[in-house]
Protein backbone atom coordinates (compact mmCIF):
# COMPACT_ATOMS: atom_id res chain seq x y z
CA UNK A 1 0.00 0.00 0.00
CA UNK A 2 1.47 3.36 -1.00
CA UNK A 3 2.12 5.89 1.74
CA UNK A 4 -0.23 8.40 0.08
CA UNK A 5 -3.14 5.98 0.57
CA UNK A 6 -2.45 5.26 4.22
CA UNK A 7 -5.35 7.06 5.86
CA UNK A 8 -6.77 5.33 8.90
CA UNK A 9 -10.45 6.21 8.59
CA UNK A 10 -13.26 5.32 10.97
CA UNK A 11 -15.98 3.51 9.05
CA UNK A 12 -19.20 5.51 9.31
CA UNK A 13 -22.61 4.21 8.18
CA UNK A 14 -22.34 6.19 4.91
CA UNK A 15 -18.83 4.88 4.27
CA UNK A 16 -20.00 1.35 5.14
CA UNK A 17 -22.60 1.51 2.39
CA UNK A 18 -20.02 2.78 -0.13
CA UNK A 19 -17.52 0.11 0.91
CA UNK A 20 -20.04 -2.73 0.71
CA UNK A 21 -21.24 -1.53 -2.69
CA UNK A 22 -17.63 -1.72 -3.95
CA UNK A 23 -17.09 -5.40 -3.01
CA UNK A 24 -18.56 -8.77 -3.95
CA UNK A 25 -16.74 -10.88 -1.35
CA UNK A 26 -15.82 -10.40 2.30
CA UNK A 27 -13.09 -12.42 4.02
CA UNK A 28 -13.26 -12.58 7.81
CA UNK A 29 -10.67 -13.64 10.32
CA UNK A 30 -12.40 -15.53 13.14
CA UNK A 31 -11.03 -15.16 16.68
CA UNK A 32 -11.27 -11.55 17.82
CA UNK A 33 -13.46 -10.63 14.83
CA UNK A 34 -16.59 -12.80 14.78
CA UNK A 35 -16.03 -14.57 18.08
CA UNK A 36 -13.86 -14.56 21.19
CA UNK A 37 -13.15 -18.08 22.42
CA UNK A 38 -16.53 -19.82 22.44
CA UNK A 39 -18.65 -16.65 22.46
CA UNK A 40 -19.83 -14.87 19.30
CA UNK A 41 -19.12 -11.14 19.12
CA UNK A 42 -22.57 -9.56 19.68
CA UNK A 43 -24.19 -8.85 16.32
CA UNK A 44 -21.56 -10.73 14.30
CA UNK A 45 -23.84 -13.52 13.10
CA UNK A 46 -26.44 -10.97 11.98
CA UNK A 47 -23.75 -9.18 9.93
CA UNK A 48 -22.54 -12.39 8.24
CA UNK A 49 -26.06 -13.61 7.52
CA UNK A 50 -27.16 -10.16 6.23
CA UNK A 51 -24.13 -9.95 3.93
CA UNK A 52 -25.16 -13.26 2.37
CA UNK A 53 -28.78 -12.16 2.04
CA UNK A 54 -27.48 -9.07 0.23
CA UNK A 55 -25.69 -11.28 -2.30
CA UNK A 56 -22.17 -11.04 -0.91
CA UNK A 57 -19.89 -14.06 -0.77
CA UNK A 58 -18.41 -14.63 2.68
CA UNK A 59 -15.29 -16.60 3.61
CA UNK A 60 -13.58 -17.39 6.92
CA UNK A 61 -9.79 -17.20 6.81
CA UNK A 62 -7.88 -18.27 9.93
CA UNK A 63 -4.29 -19.12 10.89
CA UNK A 64 -5.54 -21.63 13.47
CA UNK A 65 -4.35 -25.11 12.45
CA UNK A 66 -6.05 -27.09 15.22
CA UNK A 67 -9.43 -27.48 13.49
CA UNK A 68 -10.62 -28.95 10.20
CA UNK A 69 -12.91 -27.01 7.89
CA UNK A 70 -15.85 -29.10 9.10
CA UNK A 71 -15.01 -28.42 12.76
CA UNK A 72 -15.06 -24.69 11.99
CA UNK A 73 -18.35 -25.00 10.09
CA UNK A 74 -19.86 -26.83 13.07
CA UNK A 75 -18.71 -24.08 15.46
CA UNK A 76 -20.01 -21.35 13.16
CA UNK A 77 -23.39 -23.11 12.98
CA UNK A 78 -23.65 -23.45 16.75
CA UNK A 79 -22.95 -19.73 17.16
CA UNK A 80 -25.70 -18.79 14.71
CA UNK A 81 -23.67 -18.15 11.54
CA UNK A 82 -24.89 -19.26 8.12
CA UNK A 83 -21.71 -21.02 6.95
CA UNK A 84 -20.53 -24.16 5.20
CA UNK A 85 -17.21 -26.02 5.31
CA UNK A 86 -16.20 -24.96 1.79
CA UNK A 87 -16.25 -21.30 2.92
CA UNK A 88 -13.65 -22.00 5.64
CA UNK A 89 -9.95 -21.64 4.86
CA UNK A 90 -7.81 -22.58 7.87
CA UNK A 91 -4.10 -23.32 7.74
CA UNK A 92 -4.70 -27.05 8.34
CA UNK A 93 -6.58 -27.21 5.02
CA UNK A 94 -4.46 -24.64 3.14
CA UNK A 95 -1.16 -26.32 4.05
CA UNK A 96 -2.51 -29.63 2.72
CA UNK A 97 -3.51 -27.87 -0.53
CA UNK A 98 -0.07 -26.21 -0.68
CA UNK A 99 1.79 -29.50 -0.30
CA UNK A 100 -0.39 -31.20 -2.90
CA UNK A 101 -0.75 -28.48 -5.55
CA UNK A 102 2.33 -26.26 -5.14
CA UNK A 103 4.94 -28.67 -3.78
CA UNK A 104 3.51 -31.56 -5.86
CA UNK A 105 4.44 -33.78 -2.93
CA UNK A 106 5.13 -37.38 -3.85
CA UNK A 107 5.58 -39.16 -0.54
CA UNK A 108 4.78 -38.80 3.14
CA UNK A 109 5.01 -35.72 5.34
CA UNK A 110 6.56 -35.56 8.80
CA UNK A 111 3.91 -33.60 10.69
CA UNK A 112 4.51 -31.52 13.78
CA UNK A 113 0.85 -30.67 14.29
CA UNK A 114 -2.66 -31.66 15.28
CA UNK A 115 -5.09 -34.44 14.45
CA UNK A 116 -7.03 -31.86 12.43
CA UNK A 117 -3.95 -31.32 10.25
CA UNK A 118 -3.55 -35.07 9.86
CA UNK A 119 -7.16 -35.33 8.72
CA UNK A 120 -6.87 -32.51 6.17
CA UNK A 121 -3.67 -34.07 4.75
CA UNK A 122 -5.31 -37.47 4.46
CA UNK A 123 -8.33 -35.88 2.76
CA UNK A 124 -6.10 -34.71 -0.12
CA UNK A 125 -4.29 -38.05 -0.32
CA UNK A 126 -1.12 -37.21 1.65
CA UNK A 127 0.10 -39.63 4.32
CA UNK A 128 1.34 -37.91 7.51
CA UNK A 129 3.58 -39.44 10.18
CA UNK A 130 4.53 -38.12 13.60
CA UNK A 131 1.27 -36.96 15.22
CA UNK A 132 1.16 -37.40 19.01
CA UNK A 133 3.84 -37.55 21.72
CA UNK A 134 7.42 -38.52 20.83
CA UNK A 135 9.08 -39.41 24.16
CA UNK A 136 12.83 -39.04 24.50
CA UNK A 137 15.16 -42.00 24.99
CA UNK A 138 18.88 -42.72 24.67
CA UNK A 139 21.59 -40.10 24.26
CA UNK A 140 22.94 -37.71 21.66
CA UNK A 141 24.33 -40.40 19.33
CA UNK A 142 20.94 -42.14 19.37
CA UNK A 143 19.19 -38.85 18.64
CA UNK A 144 21.46 -38.07 15.69
CA UNK A 145 20.71 -41.54 14.26
CA UNK A 146 17.02 -41.68 15.08
CA UNK A 147 15.09 -44.00 12.72
CA UNK A 148 13.51 -42.07 9.84
CA UNK A 149 10.76 -43.01 7.39
CA UNK A 150 12.48 -43.06 4.00
CA UNK A 151 9.22 -42.13 2.26
CA UNK A 152 9.04 -38.72 3.97
CA UNK A 153 9.51 -35.91 1.45
CA UNK A 154 8.40 -32.89 3.52
CA UNK A 155 8.25 -31.49 7.04
CA UNK A 156 5.12 -29.53 7.99
CA UNK A 157 5.01 -27.51 11.23
CA UNK A 158 1.73 -26.33 12.77
CA UNK A 159 0.46 -25.98 16.32
CA UNK A 160 1.40 -29.08 18.32
CA UNK A 161 0.71 -29.38 22.05
CA UNK A 162 3.08 -32.38 22.06
CA UNK A 163 6.04 -30.41 20.63
CA UNK A 164 9.24 -31.75 22.19
CA UNK A 165 13.01 -32.05 21.83
CA UNK A 166 12.60 -35.37 20.00
CA UNK A 167 10.18 -33.84 17.50
CA UNK A 168 12.57 -30.94 16.94
CA UNK A 169 15.42 -33.43 16.47
CA UNK A 170 13.44 -35.64 14.10
CA UNK A 171 12.48 -32.63 11.97
CA UNK A 172 16.14 -31.61 11.85
CA UNK A 173 17.23 -35.07 10.67
CA UNK A 174 14.65 -35.05 7.84
CA UNK A 175 15.55 -31.49 6.84
CA UNK A 176 19.24 -32.39 6.56
CA UNK A 177 18.17 -33.82 3.20
CA UNK A 178 18.06 -30.83 0.82
CA UNK A 179 15.24 -32.38 -1.23
CA UNK A 180 12.97 -32.53 1.84
CA UNK A 181 10.46 -29.66 1.55
CA UNK A 182 9.80 -27.46 4.58
CA UNK A 183 6.41 -25.81 5.18
CA UNK A 184 4.94 -23.92 8.16
CA UNK A 185 1.31 -23.02 8.81
CA UNK A 186 1.95 -19.55 10.27
CA UNK A 187 4.38 -17.39 12.24
CA UNK A 188 2.04 -16.11 15.01
CA UNK A 189 4.27 -16.10 18.08
CA UNK A 190 1.61 -15.61 20.77
CA UNK A 191 -2.02 -16.62 21.09
CA UNK A 192 -3.86 -13.93 23.07
CA UNK A 193 -6.40 -15.10 25.66
CA UNK A 194 -9.00 -13.33 27.76
CA UNK A 195 -7.79 -11.07 30.56
CA UNK A 196 -4.53 -10.10 28.85
CA UNK A 197 -3.08 -13.62 29.10
CA UNK A 198 -1.26 -15.35 26.24
CA UNK A 199 0.29 -18.70 25.33
CA UNK A 200 3.07 -19.48 22.82
CA UNK A 201 1.88 -19.80 19.21
CA UNK A 202 2.98 -21.86 16.23
CA UNK A 203 5.58 -19.25 15.29
CA UNK A 204 7.66 -20.29 18.32
CA UNK A 205 7.68 -23.94 17.24
CA UNK A 206 8.42 -23.05 13.62
CA UNK A 207 11.30 -20.75 14.60
CA UNK A 208 12.81 -23.56 16.70
CA UNK A 209 12.72 -25.95 13.71
CA UNK A 210 14.09 -23.28 11.35
CA UNK A 211 16.93 -22.56 13.78
CA UNK A 212 17.82 -26.25 14.22
CA UNK A 213 17.60 -27.03 10.50
CA UNK A 214 19.27 -23.76 9.42
CA UNK A 215 16.54 -23.48 6.79
CA UNK A 216 13.55 -21.20 6.31
CA UNK A 217 10.08 -22.66 5.88
CA UNK A 218 7.58 -21.73 3.19
CA UNK A 219 4.77 -20.19 5.25
CA UNK A 220 1.20 -20.79 4.10
CA UNK A 221 -0.84 -18.69 6.54
CA UNK A 222 -1.57 -14.96 6.74
CA UNK A 223 0.05 -12.66 5.72
CA UNK A 224 1.28 -15.01 2.95
CA UNK A 225 -0.56 -14.31 -0.29
CA UNK A 226 -1.13 -18.07 -0.70
CA UNK A 227 -3.95 -17.87 1.84
CA UNK A 228 -5.92 -15.52 -0.42
CA UNK A 229 -4.88 -17.36 -3.59
CA UNK A 230 -6.28 -20.56 -2.10
CA UNK A 231 -9.72 -18.92 -1.79
CA UNK A 232 -9.49 -16.93 -5.03
CA UNK A 233 -8.52 -19.91 -7.20
CA UNK A 234 -11.48 -21.97 -5.98
CA UNK A 235 -14.09 -19.21 -6.22
CA UNK A 236 -12.76 -16.94 -8.98
CA UNK A 237 -12.40 -13.85 -6.77
CA UNK A 238 -11.32 -10.45 -8.08
CA UNK A 239 -8.97 -8.93 -5.45
CA UNK A 240 -10.23 -5.40 -6.19
CA UNK A 241 -13.77 -6.52 -5.30
CA UNK A 242 -12.76 -8.15 -1.98
CA UNK A 243 -12.69 -6.86 1.59
CA UNK A 244 -10.47 -8.40 4.29
CA UNK A 245 -11.77 -7.91 7.86
CA UNK A 246 -9.44 -8.71 10.75
CA UNK A 247 -8.21 -7.74 14.19
CA UNK A 248 -4.46 -8.12 13.58
CA UNK A 249 -2.39 -5.64 11.60
CA UNK A 250 0.53 -8.05 11.09
CA UNK A 251 -1.55 -10.89 9.63
CA UNK A 252 -5.02 -9.85 8.44
CA UNK A 253 -4.34 -6.30 7.28
CA UNK A 254 -0.94 -7.18 5.81
CA UNK A 255 -2.55 -10.06 3.88
CA UNK A 256 -5.00 -7.56 2.41
CA UNK A 257 -2.19 -5.18 1.50
CA UNK A 258 -0.10 -7.97 -0.04
CA UNK A 259 -3.01 -9.08 -2.23
CA UNK A 260 -4.58 -5.74 -3.20
CA UNK A 261 -7.74 -6.16 -1.10
CA UNK A 262 -9.63 -3.45 0.73
CA UNK A 263 -8.97 -3.74 4.48
CA UNK A 264 -11.01 -3.19 7.63
CA UNK A 265 -9.57 -3.41 11.16
CA UNK A 266 -11.99 -4.35 13.92
CA UNK A 267 -11.08 -3.37 17.48
CA UNK A 268 -12.59 -6.40 19.24
CA UNK A 269 -9.30 -8.33 19.12
CA UNK A 270 -5.55 -7.72 19.21
CA UNK A 271 -4.49 -4.55 17.36
CA UNK A 272 -5.33 -0.92 18.12
CA UNK A 273 -5.87 2.29 16.14
CA UNK A 274 -2.78 3.75 17.86
CA UNK A 275 -0.65 0.93 16.41
CA UNK A 276 -2.13 1.51 12.96
CA UNK A 277 -1.42 5.24 13.19
CA UNK A 278 2.16 4.55 14.30
CA UNK A 279 2.60 2.32 11.24
CA UNK A 280 1.07 5.06 9.08
CA UNK A 281 3.68 7.57 10.27
CA UNK A 282 6.53 5.11 9.80
CA UNK A 283 8.93 5.31 6.86
CA UNK A 284 9.18 1.50 6.82
CA UNK A 285 7.49 -0.08 3.75
CA UNK A 286 6.61 -3.24 5.73
CA UNK A 287 4.88 -1.20 8.44
CA UNK A 288 3.02 0.78 5.77
CA UNK A 289 1.43 -2.53 4.74
CA UNK A 290 -0.01 -2.77 8.26
CA UNK A 291 -2.28 0.24 7.88
CA UNK A 292 -5.96 -0.56 7.24
CA UNK A 293 -8.13 1.42 4.84
CA UNK A 294 -10.79 1.62 7.59
CA UNK A 295 -11.34 0.71 11.21
CA UNK A 296 -14.46 -0.02 13.22
CA UNK A 297 -15.16 -0.76 16.89
CA UNK A 298 -16.95 -4.03 16.09
CA UNK A 299 -18.21 -5.59 12.88
CA UNK A 300 -21.69 -5.28 14.40
CA UNK A 301 -21.39 -1.54 13.63
CA UNK A 302 -21.89 -2.19 9.90
CA UNK A 303 -25.32 -3.76 10.53
CA UNK A 304 -27.25 -0.46 10.05
CA UNK A 305 -25.68 -0.05 6.59
CA UNK A 306 -26.75 -3.59 5.68
CA UNK A 307 -30.30 -3.04 6.91
CA UNK A 308 -30.74 0.38 5.28
Automatic annotation (TrEMBL):
One Pfam short name: Hydrolase_6
GO CC annotation terms, alphabetical: cytoplasm
Coiled coil: none
An example Gene Ontology molecular-function term: sn-glycerol 3-phosphatase activity
Catalytic reactions of this protein: sn-glycerol 1-phosphate + H2O = glycerol + phosphate; sn-glycerol 3-phosphate + H2O = glycerol + phosphate; O-phospho-L-tyrosyl-[protein] + H2O = L-tyrosyl-[protein] + phosphate
Broad enzyme group: hydrolase
Cofactor needs: Mg(2+)
Signal peptide boundaries: none
EC number: 3.1.3.21, 3.1.3.48
Keywords, alphabetical: Carbohydrate metabolism, Hydrolase, Magnesium, Metal-binding
GO terms under biological process: glycerol biosynthetic process; glycerophospholipid metabolic process
InterPro entries named in the record: HAD-SF_hydro_IIA, PGP_euk
Assembly and binders: Homodimer.
Biological role: Glycerol-3-phosphate phosphatase hydrolyzing glycerol-3-phosphate into glycerol. Thereby, regulates the cellular levels of glycerol-3-phosphate a metabolic intermediate of glucose, lipid and energy metabolism. Was also shown to have a 2-phosphoglycolate phosphatase activity and a tyrosine-protein phosphatase activity. However, their physiological relevance is unclear. In vitro, also has a phosphatase activity toward ADP, ATP, GDP and GTP.
NCBIfam families: HAD-SF-IIA, PGP_euk
Family classification: Belongs to the HAD-like hydrolase superfamily. CbbY/CbbZ/Gph/YieH family.
Name of the featured protein: Glycerol-3-phosphate phosphatase
Upper lineage: Eukaryota, Metazoa, Chordata, Craniata, Vertebrata
Amino acid sequence: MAASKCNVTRLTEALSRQLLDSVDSVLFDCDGVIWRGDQAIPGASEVINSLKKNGKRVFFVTNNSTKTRQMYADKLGKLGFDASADEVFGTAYCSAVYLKNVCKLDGKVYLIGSNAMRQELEDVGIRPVGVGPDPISGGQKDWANVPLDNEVRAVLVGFDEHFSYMKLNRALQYLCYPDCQFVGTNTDTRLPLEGGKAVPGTGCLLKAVETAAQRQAQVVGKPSSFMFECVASQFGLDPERCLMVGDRLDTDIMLGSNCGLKTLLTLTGVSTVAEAEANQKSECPQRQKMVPDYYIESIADILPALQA
